[in-house]
Write a structure and sequence with these properties.
The strands form 3 sheets. A 6-stranded mixed β-sheet has the order 11-12-10-9-7-13. Strands 2-1-5-4-3 form a 5-stranded antiparallel β-sheet. Helix 2 runs parallel beside helix 4, helix 10 crosses helix 11 and helix 11 runs antiparallel to helix 14. The relative contact order is 0.07. It is α+β, with helices and mostly antiparallel strands and 579 residues long. The protein has 15 helices and 13 strands.
């Protein structure tokens, strides 16, 4: 079972959100955990620093009283012990030997008494400020515990000797302050401890990790509770977002289903969002427009082809039926057969042209490109085409100023230009002129076929290259055209990477302009371009009447006529009569 695009988008959105929420929650948990542990270590460090500072300050003050007697020291010690016992009466437990030593009024060594006095006084003040969670244990330099905070049992802050020795031994003995932060387990709960050494004491400060762990557990529970809620909300939001985003696609789908061959004029709706879907709709509408245009051309082509094939078939049928109705003389039968042959030849030309265009459209018509001297080929064409206008007394001129070389299929290109000249001859009145010129225009060779014929109006110029399109159908059919010649011409030019256009005015003649890329765009020396000997003149003019008389063996010369060129080569009938 395949998911819809909406379902896949929702699924992907949910997976991405789940991954994002997981990463975000992990980062939050990790950062808060790190921050809490860092804050705890900083608090322990500040606590130790405070205790060390108080001990140091009190020690400096008490050193001024070195000259006091041992009795006064014992009295101060007893007073201090009484104060400590008063403070610790709610459960603060000192080591028994320390309490006994503090409560017994026997004399103490001066150094020990001074140390106890300093520790007791300052720790008393510190505990008043931090009475609950701070775990404090102070030892003298000999390792004797002189103070333990009231929230510690006798053995509740027991640290393995090896562990404590490792922590203490790594601390230099004679430093102002040096500390290490360690994790250990004291009784039922883990404790984070900091150990510091001064010249007179070893200080161990701890704080239960349960509070930090409790905060982290609450945070984890909160994240665990919020994650599915956020995931469900994101999936629901993603579903509605996908549904809203794909709503134009649904409209496009419905409209596309309604578009058939009979209503290709319909177009897909284009949302006013200027996004990918809008661009897709525009692209599909352009494609539908091209399909509509192609479909209309195909329908027109089918109708025109049917008409072109039906006309000669109708003529053939009528003439054959007429020939069978009554007896006729051999001359009449010959006329019928001759007329039928003309229609058969016309049908043959239509079929051959259609086959050529069909092969061209299907990419099955290949060109055999080779370097071709375009100037020489057009000169040969002008020589051969001069006989085409013989019956209409049409002059054909050719002009060129250099040899131009292109890569072309010479046979197809020659036939293409011959079709253009033949088309010009058909629509040029008697006594007119056709000029064939070629010149370089940057990197292309430009060939112009100009006539002095009837011309083409502007509304027809854009359609004359369409298949079966003829400006004057009756006249074109009378001249033997089938309306495919210019279509073949256009395909041939485009197959040579060129282009063709027409410039014309009614009554002023027409100029067909063909542009084909040069094989050697930049000559070595354009001013010294060499042309064949028979092309050295800038123009050649062919007197058609004189050429015709010369081909019949006539030797008469008419006064006022231009000298004729050498006799043209025989020319075959063009492949396609251009309509």
């Amino acid at each position: 079972m395949s998911l819809s695009l909406r379902g896949r988008l929702t699924l992907w959105f949910g997976l991405v959100m789940a991954l994002s929420i997981g990463i975000f929650g992990t980062l939050i948990y990790t950062s808060i955990s790190t921050e809490l542990r860092t804050s705890l270590d900083l608090s322990l460090e500040r606590m130790i620093n405070s205790i060390v500072l108080m001990i140091r300050t009190q020690g400096e003050k008490d050193q001024k009283e070195k000259k006091s007697s041992a009795a006064s020291i014992k009295e101060r010690s007893n007073d201090t012990a009484k104060d400590a016992l008063e403070f610790l009466r709610d459960g603060d437990s000192l080591r028994q030997d320390s309490l006994r030593r503090a409560a017994t009024p026997k004399p103490l060594p001066p150094a020990t008494a001074e140390a106890e006095k300093i520790v007791w006084t300052e720790i008393y003040e510190h505990i008043v400020l931090n009475p609950r969670n701070s775990l404090i244990q102070v030892m003298d330099t000999a390792g004797t515990i002189v103070f333990r905070s009231k929230n510690l049992g006798v053995d509740s802050f027991h640290i393995e000797q090896d562990f404590l020795r490792l922590a203490v031994d790594t601390i230099p003995r004679y430093t102002t302050i040096y500390q290490a932060v360690l994790d250990t387990t004291s009784g039922p709960q883990p404790i984070r401890i900091a150990v510091a050494r001064t010249r007179s004491a070893i200080i161990v400060v701890g704080y239960p990790r349960n509070e930090v762990q409790s905060i982290l557990e609450q945070l984890f529970s909160t994240l665990l509770l919020l994650t599915p809620v956020m995931l469900v909300l994101s999936i629901v939001g993603g579903f509605f977002l996908a549904k809203t985003s794909l709503r134009p696609v649904d409209a496009i789908t419905r409209t596309a289903k309604e578009i058939t061959a009979s209503n290709l004029s319909r177009r897909l709706p284009v949302p006013n969002t200027n996004d990918e879907i809008a661009r897709l709709s525009d692209t599909l509408n352009d494609m539908i427009s091209r399909l509509e245009s192609s479909f209309e051309r195909a329908k027109q082509f089918s109708a025109d082809a049917s008409h072109e094939l039906r006309t000669p078939l109708t003529i053939l049928t009528g003439e054959m039926e007429l020939a069978l109705r009554s007896r006729k003389t051999p001359a009449e039968y010959q006329d019928v057969i001759s007329s039928a042959l003309q229609e058969v030849l016309r049908l043959s030309r239509v079929v051959e042209s259609l086959l050529l265009l069909s092969r061209a459209d299907g990419g099955r018509l290949s060109l055999h490109g080779e370097p071709t001297n375009l100037t020489e080929m057009l000169a040969d064409l002008a020589d051969a085409a001069s006989i085409l206008g013989g019956q209409k007394n049409i002059y054909i001129t050719f002009r060129a100023n250099e040899d131009l070389t292109i890569e072309a299929d010479r046979a197809k290109l020659y036939q293409m230009f011959l079709n253009l000249v033949d088309n010009a001859v058909k629509y040029t009145p008697e006594g007119g002129m056709i000029s064939l010129t070629v010149h370089r225009d940057k990197n292309v060779a430009e060939v112009r076929v100009r006539d002095t014929g009837i011309g083409i109006s502007g509304e027809h110029q854009k359609k004359i290259f369409d298949r079966f399109y003829r400006v004057d159908k009756a006249r074109s059919r009378e001249m033997g055209g089938v309306g495919l010649g210019l279509s073949i011409v256009q395909w041939t030019v485009q197959a040579h990477d060129g282009d063709i256009r027409v410039e014309s005015e009614p009554g002023q003649g027409s100029t067909f302009i063909v542009r084909i890329p040069l094989l050697n765009p930049t000559p070595q020396n354009e001013d010294m371009a060499i042309t064949p000997p028979r092309h050295r003149t800038l123009a050649q003019t062919f007197d058609v009447k004189r050429l015709l008389k010369k081909t019949k063996g006539g030797d008469e010369e008419k006064k006022g006529k231009e000298p004729t060129a050498e006799e043209p080569k025989p020319v075959a009938e063009p492949q396609e009569k251009v309509g």
